[in-house]
Design a protein that fits this description.
binds beta-D-fructofuranose; disordered N terminus; six-stranded antiparallel sheet; Jelly Rolls; globular; 4 domains; mainly beta
Length: 716
């Protein structure tokens, strides 16, 4: 946590910089009026000829059904090959025309697949120039941007333009508009800025509507940071930051491609504080007891481990954008699982195309890896390097800095997300890792004496991404333990493990979590011997905030007997109760609360820990509502619903118990002591009172009690 009291006077610096246009503007002496080849403002493509289905009956007027907002085109129409979605294909070909100017300028967006989503200039029957859009990964932008070809050598020739969409799947489309012959290039050029790193943070203004630029920062000619960012040209949506600590006192060169007249590089500043530090964690949309990153995007929790008094939460992190991308390992530590301090980024991708995807971390107590000593054991993390395979890194300073193992990758296969664990009976390390080679979706088990040399042991089919694997005692059955094998979607199997092979129990897969919950992991070396899990509350967004996505509340997992066999239960860790302010609204009623009518409780705040107990009969409905939250239990159907997500739930001894945690952006419901959990974003909060309302309708239905604890912020 960065405390406002530590603030120093800071002024964004614009010191000692120089803007360098690396590529000179292509322009020749003459400056004749441009010649428009096509502006796609008509209702049909004529005289261009469309083949296939991708281009639809004529120019699109912006986005097509199912497409993100398309921006950057001129006038009302454009070529958009998203007709019928990404899987449609086709071509769109111009009539022949004479090349009369030195530059061919056009707007282009969509997929970045050379030869598959592209605009081709065809001269003498062969492709003389070609261009694609900027996107080849999830996320990205549908914005069209100017591009130019220097066709000086082709002046006088006859040419044909062909828009090609031969690509299916993500970003399998191309957008084109405003094709113009000109004496001046309108494409992007390489711009650079030299900057002396004098303050702790480089401030990078981001505009989510701007095109993605790839920025490289070099020190003494060597690229030290390389990332994608939607650099703001004008007013930024938010300002993000890059930690300059490793470079202080050094001269850096920032390079990217931009329109020649762009001012975006000049808007980059320096400061000793993170942007808007005084307001950090006090932003109106900021969750107050769920982890979010100071800036940018997060997804999967990674490397959950307790070491030397600290819980470590690493996480998939895009520090430079509001969407997925640039995968780093962000890092935060906590003494109690609820009060987190964000630390500098732990794993920075080595180079572009080599992102640091998900993985795990362990304390190598006996120093089997040799990275530390027996008295100062190393932390060892395993992660997927997208360009290399499963890699390991180690830290000798409590996770603050990490070194790559020189022998990386340690496992090479088609897969990702290595989960490390210790298996004492064989005194070996185990890696459970997602394998999608040859079209399968499986979890592979490897073993190792030292975390470096791994041997394939076995494969368990039918899982997708982000395995977690651990052993739990079965409560109430002394001596009985079962292994839990889960994957990103939260479904799990119970079974046995002998250090080589996982043998599932009969009964198939089970599900505990529903709603916005994905890629959960549990802590290694939890000091109280608990199995504590954190998931990514996938899809809970924070529009207008400088960050996006949150983690779920940490939960203790247990195995207990349920009505249909042994099942996993999740209960928020007891530490959450330390956030209770002491303000409690409680109602109890002999006659039954909310019976037939609606009882109001409140007004309540927006950070709440609610416990409710209800008796249910044969049929009827329980409802609890709060601003942004609707929870209902259909007794006859035995279904619990929270903000639109439903899951089966049976009463226990004729009762339903609910524990509900409400934060600024989310609600989590734990039913019947954690037999079932639902994570959801808040719905519209509406105006009016902030009342908690309860209603019980039907025979023998009543809320016996509702207790509302007001929670405080974990950030203060
Ligand atoms: C799951 C996942 C992982 C991958 C990571 C990349 O959400 O796709 O499989 O390692 O996210 O961010």
């Amino acid at each position: 946590m960065i405390r406002p009291s530590l603030r120093r006077q800071s002024r964004p610096l614009l010191l000692s910089w120089a803007l360098v246009a690396v590529v000179a503007l292509t322009s020749i002496g003459e400056d004749r009026p441009d010649r428009v080849i096509a502006d796609f403002e008509g209702t049909t493509y004529a005289p261009w000829i469309a083949e296939g289905t991708a281009f639809g009956p004529g120019p699109a007027r912006g986005a097509l059904p199912g497409q993100m907002a398309v921006t950057g085109f001129e006038g009302k129409g454009l070529v958009n090959s998203f007709a019928g979605g990404d899987d449609s294909t086709g071509t769109l070909t111009s009539p022949p025309f004479a090349i009369e100017r030195r530059s061919l300028n056009f707007l282009i967006g969509g997929g970045k697949y050379p030869g598959e989503t592209c605009l081709d200039l065809v001269v003498d029957g062969s492709v003389a120039r070609t261009a694609t859009g900027p996107n080849d990964r999830p996320g990205g932008s549908e914005r069209l941007d100017w591009a130019s070809w220097d066709v000086g050598d082709l002046v006088g020739k006859s040419a044909v333009l062909r828009v090609v969409d031969r690509r299916k799947g993500g970003w399998g489309h191309i957008n084109v508009d405003q094709i113009v012959q000109s004496d001046r290039s309108r494409g992007v050029v390489t711009l650079a800025r030299v900057l002396d790193a004098e303050r702790r943070y480089l401030l990078l203004p981001v505009d989510e509507g701007a095109p993605i630029r790839r920025v490289k920062i070099a020190l003494d000619g060597k690229v030290v940071r390389d990332f994608d960012i939607k650099l703001a040209e004008g007013k930024p949506g938010f300002v993000t930051f890059l930690d300059l600590a490793p470079f202080l006192g050094k001269r850096l060169r920032i390079e990217t491609t931009l329109p020649a007249d762009s001012k975006a590089l000049e808007r980059i500043g320096q400061s000793d504080e993170v942007p808007d530090e005084a307001n950090l964690y006090r932003e109106p949309g900021r969750p107050q007891f769920h982890f979010t990153s100071r800036r940018g995007w997060l997804n999967d929790p990674n490397g959950l481990v307790f070491f030397d008094g600290e819980y470590h939460l690493f996480y998939q992190h895009n520090p430079y954008g509001w969407d997925w991308g640039n995968m780093h390992w962000g890092h935060a530590v906590s003494p109690d699982l609820v009060r987190w301090s964000e630390l500098p980024i732990a794993l920075t991708p080595r180079e572009h195309g080599d992102w640091a995807f998900s993985g795990s971390a362990v304390v190598d107590r006996a120093n089997t890896s040799g990275f530390g000593t027996a008295t100062a054991p190393p932390l060892v993390a395993a992660y997927t390097s997208t360009g290399r395979g499963e890699c390991i890194a180690y830290s000798l300073d409590r996770g603050r800095t990490w070194s790559e193992y020189a022998g990386n990758p340690v496992v090479k296969h088609s897969g990702r997300d290595p989960r490390l664990l210790r298996f004492e009976p064989t005194k070996r390390w185990i890696m459970a890792v997602y394998d999608e080679g040859e079209g399968r979706r499986a979890i592979d088990f490897y073993s190792s004496p030292d975390l470096k040399a791994w041997t394939f042991e076995s494969r368990s089919d039918g899982y997708f991404e982000c395995p977690d694997f651990f052993e739990l005692p079965v409560e109430g059955e002394p001596g009985r333990k079962l292994w839990v094998l889960s994957a990103a979607d939260g479904e799990y199997r119970l079974g046995r493990f002998d250090g080589k092979t996982f043998t599932p129990e009969p009964g198939g897969k089970h599900r505990l979590w529903h709603g916005n919950f994905y890629a959960a992991q549990t802590f290694s070396d939890e000091p109280k011997g608990r199995r504590v899990q954190i998931g990514w509350a996938q899809g809970i967004t924070f529009p207008g905030m400088p960050f996006n996505q949150q983690m779920s509340i940490p939960c203790e997992l247990t195995l207990r007997k349920a009505e249909d066999g042994v099942r996993m239960f999740a209960r928020p860790v007891a530490e959450v109760e330390s956030l209770r302010t002491g303000t409690r609204l409680a109602t109890r009623s002999e006659g039954g609360l909310g019976s037939g009518s609606e009882d109001g409780l409140g007004p309540v705040g927006d950070l709440l820990d609610i416990s409710a107990l209800a008796d249910v009969g044969p049929s009827g409905q329980l409802t609890m509502t709060l601003p942004g939250v609707v929870i209902g239990y259909d007794v006859g159907r035995r279904v619990l619903t929270c903000n639109g997500t439903s899951a089966p739930l049976s009463p226990v001894d004729g009762t339903i118990a609910l524990r509900v945690l409400v934060d600024r952006g989310s609600v989590e419901v734990f039913a019947n002591d954690g037999r079932l959990a639902i994570s959801k974003g808040l719905g519209p909060k509406g105006g009016g009172d902030r009342m908690l309302k309860a209603r019980a309708q039907g025979e023998k239905i009543r809320f016996r009690s509702i207790d509302v604890d007001v929670l405080g912020s974990a950030w203060r």
